[in-house]
Every structure is written in structure tokens, then in C-alpha cells.
Amino acid sequence: MAGTSTKGIWKVITASSMGTLIEWYDFYIFGSLAVVISTKFFPSDNPTAAFLSTLATFAAGFVVRPFGALFFGRLGDIIGRKYTFMVTLLLMGGATFLIGCVPSYESIGFFAPLLVLILRLLQGLALGGEYGGAATYVAEHSPKGQRGYWTSWIQTTATFGLFISLMVILVTRELLSSGEFDEWGWRVPFWISILMVIVSYIIRKKMHESPEFAKAKAEGKTSTNPLKESFGNKYNLKFVLLALFGAAMGQGVVWYTGQFYAMNFLKTVMFVESSQVDGLLGIALLFGTPFFVFFGWLSDKVGRKPIMMIGMLMAILLYRPIYKEMYRTTDLSLKTEIRPEQYYHAPDELPSPDIKIYTDGTKLDIIRNINKATGKEEVKNNITVNSADKWYLIFLVFIQVLFVTMVYGPIAAFLVEMFPVRIRYSSMSLPYHVGNGIFGGLLPAIATYLVSNAKQNGDPEFYLEGLWYPIIIGGICFVIGMVYLKSKNNTEHD
Predict the structure, then answer these.
(1) What range(s) does the Major facilitator superfamily (MFS) profile domain occupy (predicted)?
(2) Quick one: pLDDT at residue 62?
(3) Considering 348, 382, 416, which residue would you say is the last residue of a domain?
(4) Which end of the chain is more exposed for a tag (fewer CB within 10 A), N or C?
């Protein structure tokens, strides 16, 4: 077990966190630019199908994460934590950089989505090995009784990675014209990641192996076949399944609903202007991120289960009211349009008929484009919300981020404590990445499909249909967790 000293632990956390932050940044760049990417790498004759295809490609990276967890988890339990997640960093960074180099669909046809899919799969494999290594590494340096607090710093990196990706995209959009960003500027965030990876590699190279693993290795107590011990042993497999269905599955859908689905919902269902969405989401994430550490610390005092279960239950009960309020802020049928003559004095000042302004300050730009493939005109609403509604939306997203911090802040310590050192990397990585990769990663695509289907069927509350997926998955996880998880912090089984 870890001792009581915290000497050098900030160095460990900084080295682990920076690499993990960059890997999450790499992963999120794709999701954050999904709307743009759908027009570059997929046929343009059906925008909805192109966007769904992009989300499916994004989800593919999540689906292979469990395979990355198995492959790199085995390496981590055999050769060590440090070298394994150094490899994952380089693999992730290289794949991300290359996505930014892939020619468009117009240039190379179906090879474009094929290459992007292959690179997304490599990203997913790398991320599958990254988190378990970083969380295990920090936990094995943490003093006994403080694992929740110290590992929660790793938990902040995922949200910071998303935050930084949003800010990089926002700055790139500001520095370039809309035409330049659409033509080549969207590639810049992918290219920038390679510089960040180089810095992180240099930092990680100076790290030492975790003391618990080094001790186990010196005593000859490491596993020669960690996958067999982890999943072939019925006793250990029970803990793996409990970790998945009683915690990680629900945590995964809450995480992706509160951040990724909120972003997609604002952009593609509410039609809020893209830069404004990135800005308000960034503010909500900035306010919410400290709560990862708070709930990690609190879990050392009151246990992991109560915090995770309360967060999950609140999300299940409040998602529909929250998203109903979000949608209402840009529901133009509830707003009153100002007639042009009321705010323009001269005929030559009259705005384009494709620009509408409402009494509460909301602005609608109707963007018309000719689809090159079909020759038909496409019409898209682009809404800029007023200042009051902007801060209200920030508040509503912040509440969702709070749910995320409750379920995600304590989970690294929770998973680490379920498994012994010799098979910890393998055992904890799989349920985490199945929960997040499969159940969480599929959420944007499934939820978007449910919304599109309900809209076609004329459901007046079509925009809420996508929430049934996280509500049902989270509900099942909540019941299993309440019944089978221990009330106090887990202790390792032998």
C-alpha cells in the first residue's frame, strides 16, 4: 500500500495529468469539430447522414477503447505503468496530427472517411491504455486514506482537455475569416497537438516507476498473465462486472451527456452559433472543474458510493427539465420579432431579410448555401442568444457538469481500490473503458438519431427524446450500484 508521505506527489500528478490532458484534448478535438468534419470527409448530398456518419466515426474511437485497455493494461501489469502510457501518448498524438493532414472527400473520395476511421481507431486504442495507467500511477503514489483527493486531479484533465480544445478552436476561428477556417483553419487544432505531445513526452520521460509496482516487481509478485487472472478468475471477474454495471456504465453516460451531448444539442438542435456555444461551454467547464477535486476529497471522508449514486440519481431526474429549459431559450415561436422599420431609420439601412432580431435581443441569421452535389439550396438557422439567455445556458450546462464531477471525481480511486496491484492496470481499465467507451461513447450518435427520428414523426417534444438513452442506462446502473456496491470505500481483494 502507499505510505503517508506526500513528498514528490505533485511532480507525479503534474507529469501524469499533463500527458492525460493532452490525450483528452486530442480526442475531443474531433468531437468538438464534428459539425465541420462532417462536411469535409463525407458526401455532402445529405448533411444529416454526413453528421451522423461523423458521430459514428467518433463513436468508433470509443468502441475500440476496451481493446486498448486489454492490450495496454496487460503491458502495464507486466512491464510497468510508466513505459506503457508513454507509448499511448505518442500513438494518440501521431494519430491526431495525421487526421489534420487527411485530404477532403472532394479530393480523394471514400479514402477520406476510411483514413479518418483508421486514425480514430488508433486514437481509441491509445486512450484505452492511457487512463488506467495514469490513474493507477497516481493512486500508487498516494498516501493511504487520501486516494480520492489525489486521483481527482487526474479526473480534472478530461474536462480541461475539452476546455482547451474549445478555446483553441475559438481562438482559431477568431484569427481567421469564416472562409479560411472552413477551408483549412479547422485543421490547425489537430496540428497544434503534436507540439503539446512533444512537451509531455519530455516530462514523462523523467518519471520513475510507481513504488507499489516497483516493490511487487522486485519481490517477483507481478502477474505473468494478467488478462487470465483478471477475467478468467471468477472471483475477480465478479468485481470487474460490478465496477462496470454498478458504476462505470452510469458514469459514462452522465459524463457524455453533460458535456458532449450538451454541446451537440446546442449546435444542432437549438442552432446556437458555434463560437458562442464553445464560449459558454468553456465558461461552464471552468466553473465546474474544481468540483472534481472537491468530490474526490469528500469521497475520502464519506465514501465513494454515496457521492457517485447521488450524482447519478440527480442527473436521471433532472435531465429532461434542464434540456426543456435550454430549448426554450431559443424557441423562436415564443419570441416577438422586431419589425425592421422599428430599429432602422433609412431604407438603405434595412437588413437582409435573412436577418431577424427579436425583442429580447436574440438574433437569427438564415444562412443559405447551394449544395454542390445536389445543386439544391440548403437553409440553416444560426441563432445568437442574448446576454441574459447566454448566462442562463451557462448555468444549465454548469449544473450538468456538477453531476459529472460527482460521478467522475471519485471513480478513479473507486476502481483502483477494487483490484490488487498485480492485475490492477488490466482489471480497472476494462470496466472503465467499456462504461465510457461503449455506453458513453455511443451516446451522441444514439441520442442524435432518436431526436431526428422523433422530429420526423412530428413529436412536439422531439428534442427531449435523445435523453432516454442516458436516463435508462443511468437508471439501470443506479439500481445495481445501490444494491451491490459497498457503502464504504472499497478495499483491495486478494
Answers:
(1) 12-492
(2) 76
(3) 382
(4) C
Type of residue at 15: A
Distance between CA atoms of 74 and 68, rounded to whole angstroms?
Answer: 10
What is the C-alpha end-to-end distance of the chain, expressed in Å? 13
Q: Does residue 3 lie in a domain region? A: no
pLDDT digits 0-9 by tens, 277-304 = 988 988 998 899 999 999 999 999 999 9
- Is 390 found in the same domain as 375? no
456 in a domain, yes or no? yes
Query: Is residue 343 domain-shared with residue 464, that is, in the same domain?
Result: no
Integer Cα distance of 424 and 420 in angstroms? 5
Q: What pLDDT does 370 receive?
A: 67
Do residues 402 and 289 touch, judged by C-beta distance below 8 A?
A: no
Q: Find the mean pLDDT for residues 381-403.
A: 94
CA gap 167, 290 in Å, rounded? 18
Residue type at position 107: S
What grid cell was written down for 276? 458562442
CA distance 33 to 28: 8
Q: Which residue has the cell 464531477?
A: 405
pTM value?
0.82
Q: Are the C-beta atoms of 383 and 273 separated by less than 8 Å?
A: yes
Range(s) of the domain holding residue 43: 9-330+385-484
Tell me, yes or no, whether 489 lies in a domain.
no
Closest CA to 16 of 128, 213, 158: 158
Kindly report, residue by residue over 18-39, the tens digit of the pLDDT: 767 876 787 778 777 877 788 8
Per the structure, the count of domains in the chain is 2
Are 108 and 26 within one domain?
yes
Amino acid code (one letter) for 148: G
Using CA atoms, how far apart are residues 243 and 177, in angstroms rounded to an integer?
Answer: 48
Query: Residue 476: what residue type?
Result: I
Whether 162 and 282 share a structural domain = yes
| Domain identity same for 223 and 92 | yes
